[in-house]
Design goal:
With about 375 residues, the chain is α/β, with parallel strands linked by helices. About 30% of the residues lie in helices and about 15% in strands. The protein contains eleven helices and 13 strands. Strand 4 and strand 5 form a beta hairpin. Helix 4 packs across helix 5, helix 6 runs parallel beside helix 8 and helix 9 packs parallel to helix 10. The protein starts with a strand and ends in a 9-residue tail after the last helix.
């Protein structure tokens, strides 16, 4: 018999489901607390719920976790899990411990349709959207493994979530937004909107909507400051060009000096890392409360690019800082286990030769 996965429900849907099964709204809230405050997956542990109700819940529903295929631990403390979903497709989830926080990087799709030329995920042939239970399941699985329940405890290990794993979150908006709303529920995992970051390559029509609905931090994968180059590096730029993208960012709700847009900029040797690029970047985002995140390119087997030299990265960063922008250089984490930005790609779909070779190296521009 089909059993409903309760992680696929918003709180309202859980309440409706309970009502349908002649359980009260109050019961729904109790169940939600067991799931999202305490991390329980077993109805029999819910000791303030009558046994007959627990039996019913066991018959009609489950609280899922994805299956772990492999766990890899980096020498810098980063952990990467390769996760198997119900249809046997695979995604990766990463935990990155830092001094003042612990960040979980979640995948939103199996693979990605957008084929950014420097990104490993984009070479994966099979693509499908994850549903809310598969997105939340990744986070809750990490919390299980780090013994991070109940969510209200002091010194939580998981303090931040970034939607920067596999996939383009704004192309799977309905499930991503449902999962994020559940993460933010006070009487639940209770992560504040300031601790959640949505990263997009620039799905312009969804940017304002996500700001209104969710109000989380926005990160834009910029990577180039003119359309000619961005068309090549981030091909979705052909559909939503820089002018459209910058306009949408200017309209992002609740922007202020304390709520700034993060511009992600991968540093590719001899491609986008000149002084002129840095100056044009400053001009492009003028007037928008911004932080710039320079990401040294993380190579992967078969990639066509090289990482900019440290000297070029420093010169680039200085130009940006002189213009008054904060410009942290993102330290690659978990590189030894291929857990760094853009290195994620489950092994279910091996890189297809035709795809790996279809990009003209932009070095030759
Ligand atoms: N699809 C979303 C989120 C996932 S990628 C997006 O593109 O924003 C998270 C970040 O890693 C993006 O900024 C992406 O451009 C960057 N990235 C991808 N491949 C990379 C690589 N090989 N080295 C460094 N950063 C990379
Ligand atoms: Fe997709 Fe983001 Fe990779 Fe581009 S960088 S291919 S949008 S995951």
């Amino acid at each position: 018999m089909f059993k409903q996965d309760l992680l696929d429900f918003s709180l309202e849907q859980l309440q409706d489901f309970c009502t349908l099964n002649e359980l009260s709204k109050f019961r729904a809230n109790q169940i939600s607390r067991w799931i999202y405050c305490f991390g329980h997956t077993c109805f029999d542990d819910m000791n303030n719920i009558a046994k007959s109700t627990r039996n019913l819940l066991n018959q009609i529903s489950v609280i899922s976790r994805p299956e772990i295929i492999e766990r890899q631990d980096s020498k810098d403390g980063t952990i990467k899990w390769l996760i198997k979903l119900k249809d046997n497709s695979e995604v990766e989830t990463v935990f990155i411990p830092q001094d003042d926080r612990g960040t979980v990087c979640l995948s939103s799709q199996v693979g990605c349709t957008l084929n950014c030329t420097f990104c490993h995920t984009g070479t994966q042939a099979l693509v499908r959207n994850l549903n809310s239970s598969e997105i939340l399941g990744q986070l809750m699985l990490v919390m299980d493994h780090l013994d991070d329940w109940p969510s209200g405890k002091n010194n939580r290990k998981v303090t931040n979530v970034v939607m920067m794993g596999m996939g383009e979150p704004l192309l799977n908006y309905s499930e991503v937004s449902k999962a994020i709303k559940i993460m933010m529920l006070d009487d639940g995992i209770s992560l504040s909107r300031r601790r959640i970051t949505l990263s997009t390559s620039g799905i312009v029509p969804m940017i304002e909507k996500s700001g209104i609905d969710l109000g989380v931090n926005l990160a834009i994968s910029l990577h180039a400051v003119n359309d000619e180059l961005r068309d090549k590096l981030v091909p979705i730029n052909k559909k939503y060009n820089l002018e459209n993208l910058i306009d949408a960012c200017k309209k992002y709700p609740a922007l202020s000096n304390s709520r700034r847009i993060t511009w992600e900029y991968v540093m590719l040797k001899d491609v986008n890392d000149t002084k002129e690029d840095a100056r044009n970047l400053v001009k492009l985002i003028e007037g928008i409360p911004s932080k710039i995140n320079l990401i040294p390119f993380n190579p992967w087997p078969g990639s066509l690019f090289e990482t900019s030299t440290q000297k070029n990265i420093d010169v680039f960063a200085n130009i940006i800082m002189d213009a008054g922008f904060a410009s942290p250089i993102r330290k690659p984490r978990g590189q030894d286990i291929f857990a760094a930005c853009g290195q994620l790609k489950s092994e279910t779909q091996k890189i297809r030769k035709s795809q790996a070779n279809k990009f003209v190296p932009v070095h030759s521009l």
